[in-house]
Hints:
The complex is a heterodimer of chains A (about 350) and B (about 400). Helix content of chain A is about 55%, strand content about 5%. With about 350 residues, chain A is mainly α. Chain A folds into three domains: about 5-95 and about 190-215, no CATH class; about 115-175, no CATH class; about 230-340, Orthogonal Bundle (DNA Cyclobutane Dipyrimidine Photolyase, subunit A, domain 3). Residues about 215-220 and about 345-350 of chain A have low confidence and may be disordered. With about 400 residues, chain B is of the alpha+beta class. Chain B is built from 15 helices and 18 strands. The interface of A and B includes residues 155, 160, 247, 309 and 314 of A.
Amino acid sequence: MLSKADQAKYPVLPDAVEYVRQRGLTIEELSDRSYATILDRAEERLKEAIAKGIVSSEWQNDDVEILSFPVAVYLATILRDDWVRRRFALAESRRASQFLLNEDISRVAEVATKTFGWKIDPAGVEVSEVAPILRVDFKSYIKNALKIKEFKWKLTNRVLDHGFVRVSKDEASRLLQEEVQSRILGRIKSIPLERPSFLKDRIERLRKLVSERRATVAFSELPEAVIPAAMPPCMRSLYDSMHSGKHIPHVGRFALTSFLVNAGVNQEGILLLFKTAADFDEGKTRYQVEHIAGARGGKTKYKPPKCATLRTHGLCINPDNLCREISHPLSYYRTRLRRVFPRGRRYAEK
Amino acid sequence: MQKSDEYVKRKFEEYYRDNVEKVKPPPEMEKREYGFLLFEGGMMMRHRAFKSATNLRAFISSTVPAHAYNSTAYYLEPEEEMDRKKWQGADLTFDVDADHIPTPCKYVHDLWVCKNCNTQGKGPVPAKCPKCQGERIDEEAWLCELCLERAKEEVIKLLDFLGEDFGFLRSDITICFSGHRGYHVHLRADEARGLDSDERKEIVDYVLGLGFAPELHPDLLDGGGAPEGQIAASGWPRRVARGLYEILTETSEDELTSWNINRRVAKTIYRSREELASTWIGERTRSLPQGVGPGTYRILVQKAVERESAKVDTVVTTDIHRLIRIPETLNGKTGFRAAEVSSIEGFDPFSDAIAFKGEETVHVREAPQFRIGNQTLGPYVDKVVTLPSAAAVLLLSKGKASLRAD
Lengths: 350, 406
């Protein structure tokens, strides 16, 4: 059982959740002036998340700190903004991770196993003062490490022995940050909630902050015709192969088609390109293109595979300098477009 | 249907009439999707489901498909469209195929044909037809002992990864011959069942050694001050250390040079191989010969990774809705059985996967030398020969022969 202070550190953990449940806080109660401190802290949690990407780790009152977390989750739900949802989950998980870094190894292991279901090889715990080590089951490791980009997290670069991966205590804290983040993301549901009037001002303030913040990270829209000069080398190579009628494997076709669909090329345009393929079958190709574009079946528009997936399938060809900065072919395309065609200019004559 | 297709189908029919009990549906067979490729018009039937082995076998012996597949996935509604099947997990499946292994014999037995001018050539498919510059080229791959032997080595390496590194039990793993150029490895364990495509991709990258960064493993060479064997004793560091040792002690000067290693450096490595062999293993420090710089070291590590990695197909493992050949059914490309393999070392596809008895006389246009059981056959060029049925079906299925009546 976590102490009150520990629950304030980790309001996402089951003990804190249970405490809040037993406390039975209702939305009506929140409108009472005596709860203003909790609402203030909840709003502040979101403001810090939006502005700084991390929630501060100092507080006055354990109760306020614990109770303000679910209220912040509630506010984030009301805001109905996916960016805020992700930003908040990230900021809260960073806060939790900072606390975990200062815990001893047995506490880290306890959180990992009890809350997140990791398996930890008990024989593998090295309680050394200098470099405490845990051996984590590979499945829990992969699930979280996949979300972190640096090369050292790739399973290939870890010591994997009979199902367990060696991680330092600090690394375990970093992996747990991902667990906390997913858990928070799961708690902020995308359901429309009624917005109580007593929260109106707070919501407005947060909305304003979001739009200020947004202005600096605005995305430019993609042009309607594909600009080959801005395509990443992998897609360029697939495009050229397809254009000259060379055989390209199914994954390659999927990657190119979904890239083009997302780059704004219409289905007829894509069919035209496929017509040059060695084994062109109009009916089949049309079906596939429509499927990828979301006009059929599950109605989902498929995104092209990310760089890591293209690498696995041997489709990452001649990566250039820009490739090092991005992890998805569409971000390459967007970035290059922005560089080649500064904002305000028409991309291309159609 | 062509005469030869009819003949092959008739042989399949006979086989299934007597042996359909051997067809081995996967565990939890009622949760799988089944697919069949028919002899007639190359038609694919998908989204089928069977409640029992009896039903599946009855279907196979009455329909006589050229290829029979089941999903690696488990579904609540296997007969529904993909989006409504309700995916419940999938076996972790690996396909080891000669297509992904560079073997020198491909220059002897693999053919390509230009679709434009019918020019033929051997070995890997060129980007352009040397005669007409056409880029539409068909590939005709052959199955040969050497390629299959190499595929077997890759399976053995894969099993080592699955056991030593991932900790899976050998009893959770089934190996099947694909009936053509390789092997399928099926892993059925609770820890693997729910893995998503990205997680499976990470496992594929691991067995391929993709992304191994030597700079993250300084301990590979000097032990990093750790007690001998502690750090490089498992996972990729162990494999790379072993691969480096083998490369340094076995590679000829010319081969080293062919990897873009400076001739002088190659000479140094070659000269120090005996000394290395006696100092490398069992010592606290492993060091490279003097004069081997970081550039050469990177090349050597890359070669060590290639040597130690298990070359699996990247698509099959990461596709969580994949159809894969049903064990102990016949492969329409060859007429061989997709035989379950009990001991990979001892498995001989050219005798253990033979399905047919008897003989048949066929007209062979062209075929490389091959073996059926203890019989070595061919090479043939434009020849009428009487062959064991298994050989006749193989050549007919591969389009390398026709029935005399055709």
